[in-house]
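[Automated response] Your request has been received and processed.

Submitted sequence:
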Amino acid sequence: MHRDSDQAPTRPEVSVVICTFTEQRWERLVCAVESVQQQSVPPDEIIVVVDHNPPLYEVIRSRFPEVIVGENHEKAGLSEARNSGVALARGAIIAFIDDDAVAAPDWLEHLLAAYQDEQVMGVGGAIHSVWASGRPAWFPREFDWVLGCTYVGSPEESAPVQRLIGCNMSFRREVFDRIGRFRSEIGRVGNRPFAGEETEFSIRACQHSPDRVILFVPQARVDHHVPNTRARWSYFLSRCYAEGLSKALLSRFVGYGDGLKMEWSYVLKTLPRGILRGVLDTIRQGNLDGVARALAIVAGLFATVAGFGRCTISIHLANLFRSRSHARARARASIGQRKSRHTSPRQAEPSPNTEESVTG
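Generated structure:
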């Protein structure tokens, strides 16, 4: 049956994937699922993937019979959990939201609107931090990426970007069909503060299809819960250090040029402005909160660089050891071949006494 030419084009089917791993986030997960169910443009399916937690899997199936509930049977971690969601999804657009986030009612509406342009292969949106006990005065907004949220330095209007944050991202299914899935070698496992699988996937997609774009649409908003455990200096510094490790691993896969392209502008422009802003805030407000934020920027940068440096050195040493091992193996093989060539003719010649022993 042909539709009329003046009829509005049919929107693509969309699947929303939510990954979870612990009962400790149960109330947050319920809010996340319900926020997706209440969208102004409802999804065609909601998929909840449970990462190696059979009891939680059964509880979710009982609580949400209308939701597709799957399990990650591969390597534990967010990367393979998302891959399991992709395998279950039937939609032409696959969107992701975290189990501790709540989508605005028009979240999907804004995401899907951007896909009217066929050149767009991925769309993400703004992620606002919602602190359990309020934002600490020392925590700089330039480092909200520590929380998996949009940070100062992100686009303020719709714009092409190189990467998306996993809490609020979407891709066309064809992208997964062309370039594969999220890498399990990087990314978060449980509460381990690593990241980068969505960044690597975004960059890989851009490298594979340089004529297409990934869009950041700030109107496609989600709120991301920030627990009190992340309002501590210890978490801030450990997460920055882990980000440095993740960036080094990421660069190993996509190259240092693409892996660090956005970081140069961030380090050379965004962070100095943040430090200056913090100092000026202290002068204007007459308290030390601004200086504390400036010091946090410096400490966070040093922790990130330390993690990056350590992992980069480890990778280079491992590569050096591997190349030397291969060189020694090739040398041993070459010596063995030379010995074989020298001994083979002698083995082929009969012994001088052989004929006598046979005929005598």
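Summary generated for your ticket: The chain has eleven helices and nine strands. The radius of gyration is 27 Å.
If you did not submit this request, please reply to this message.
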